[in-house]
Design brief:
It is a single chain. The protein contains eight helices and seven strands. It has a five-stranded antiparallel sheet. The protein has a two-stranded antiparallel ribbon with strand order 5-6. The longest helix has 27 residues. It has two domains: about 150 residues, no CATH class; about 140 residues, no CATH class.
């Protein structure tokens, strides 16, 4: 093997070891998902093994192994930025790229590139001193990613932890971790530091917000959604109008921003501005672990057990709420609590990205003592809705 070829392989080997170290570090951040953590350890061991082999061996099989292991690692990372995997738990929801995982992927790409050049272009030159310099830079990048990840672990998560100035000033009274906190989609998503919320819950909540911001604007034109099966429930008098798609309520999709069960528009005369999705979970109870554990204390699933409904031309219409005796207005009925629901806002809201209507008719949550809800806040802000 020529010195040049060895230099490229050395670079690929060090990058593979760096990626493996980051995967081992990340495994410690996913201990709530034992299978995922174990798989990360196995992948880390494989990357470190082939990386070390590349540093000490000139055999042709070595760059092939470096390429194979790291292609798998990078491919899985790339796929899970856009879609979830059915297995293992912890990768079931697409996650926005973060510095730690992105650095790991970059090092994996460098490992593949270095090994590929060493394998197919032995005439390419990269001296050992130059390779050692590049390898040292890869090591520094890996350490920086670990330090950044360590800070996120301290704040109970590895989701999007970018903090925008002023995000924590209105409602957290200086604690930095109170929830809910003001939400502005123009600023980085920040659900970090909430006591009791796991890293996986932060990641799922962040991914849900990100996906809703990306996909929900496709429904911005209220005049086009009728063709998609959406019908108003006739509550525009409240200042917000809900449009429900009963076909999406019956399907098996869960928290899918491309198929939201309900759309919420702010009412301004004849104008309607899309402000929120209202996701509805089919066939689940309010205390179902799939709902309670999805975002933990960040999200509050709720039901409406005091709404009265009547028949309308386009489908069921809200007629009001039950009175103190539990009675509905004439020609309407109260069917009781239905499928649990949760909101995600794509416009600013002082009560957070999952805010809901405060006061009478707001719905009940059975997962906290007395049914109180964590997706509301005690201040008098407009913008809450059912």
């Amino acid at each position: 093997m020529t010195g040049g070829r060895h230099g490229f392989l050395l670079l690929g080997g060090v990058a593979a070891v760096g990626a493996g170290g980051l995967h081992l570090f990340a495994a410690g951040l996913h201990t709530e998902h034992a299978t995922l953590a174990r798989l990360m350890v196995v992948l880390a061991a494989a990357q470190c093994a082939v990386g070390l082999a590349a540093m000490v061996s000139a055999r042709k099989a070595v760059p092939v192994m470096v390429i194979g292991v790291n292609v798998v690692a990078v491919a899985v990372w790339a796929y899970t930025r856009f879609a979830g995997l059915p297995w293992p738990d912890g990768l079931d929801v697409a996650e926005a790229p973060q510095f730690l995982d992105s650095t790991c992927a970059v090092l994996g790409v460098v490992a593949v590139a270095g090994a590929a050049v060493a394998l197919v272009r032995p005439e390419a030159k990269l001296g050992v001193p130059q390779a050692a310099t590049a390898a040292g830079m890869s090591g520094v990048l890996a350490v920086a990613a670990m330090l950044g990840g360590a800070g996120h672990v301290h704040s109970h998560g590895t989701g999007d932890h970018s903090h925008a100035d002023g995000d924590h000033t209105a409602h957290d009274h200086g604690t930095g971790n109170a929830w809910p906190r003001p939400w502005d989609p123009a600023k980085p998503i920040d659900v970090s530091g909430v006591p009791g919320v796991t890293a996986a819950q932060e990641q799922r909540a962040t991914a849900l917000i990100r996906g809703t911001l990306d996909d929900l604007p496709a429904f911005a034109d209220v005049h086009s959604i009728g063709a998609l099966g959406y019908r108003s429930i006739g509550d525009s008098v409240t200042g917000y109008e809900h449009f429900i798609n009963t076909a999406y309520i019956r399907d098996d999709l869960f928290l899918d921003a491309k198929h939201p069960e309900s759309l919420v528009y702010r009412v301004d005369g004849d104008n309607r501005t899309l402000v929120s999705a209202m996701y509805i979970a089919k066939g689940k109870k309010i205390d179902d672990p799939d709902l309670v554990n999805y975002g933990g204390a960040l999200m509050q699933w709720h039901v409406h057990d005091n709404l009265c409904w009547k028949a309308g031309d386009g489908g069921p219409q809200v007629a009001g709420v039950t009175d103190a005796q539990g009675n509905c207005p004439p020609a309407s009925i109260n069917p009781g609590a239905g499928n649990p629901m949760v909101h995600v806002w794509i416009t600013a809201n002082q009560c957070g990205p999952f805010a809901a209507l405060e006061g009478h008719g707001a719905g009940q949550a059975a997962t906290t003592p007395g049914g109180s809800r964590k997706d509301t806040c005690s201040h008098d802000h407009s913008g809450g809705h059912r």
